[in-house]
Amino acid sequence: MLKRIYESEPPVRSKIIIMAPSTFLDFLALYSKIEEFGYDQLICCDSANFKDAPTKINDYMESIVQDVQTIRVTHCPNAYAAVFNLIDEGQVYKVSYSGDCRPSQDFAKIGINSDLLIHEATFDDDMKDEAIAKKHSTIGEALEIGQL
Asked: pTM of the full predicted structure?
């Protein structure tokens, strides 16, 4: 995806923010040595630096991002969900993003009153056992998080 953005016409030359575990950020740095995908356009933020507390990140992101709060979730090692407070023309918008994970009450707490919830729902409700085994959510579970 990064390479497609880098090669797009007209070219997109604004910075792209990548908030991920350090192992993934290390991979991107190494991969950039063998393939050009616009690595110099990335602002890389280690997700562990933001965990469990609201953090002002103006040093990393443009002024539209007021703050980011992350919380560990159940999926793979170093899996986080994030809540972004965005400001546009004086209006603050709250966006909550879960990524792949099991439903999380802690995520629901920090994401309460979001303007937009983006929550993965890999499995239908009749596949809850498989969702649990693979550490994903069902559609119904994602909807429940949105109602909290």
From this structure: 0.73
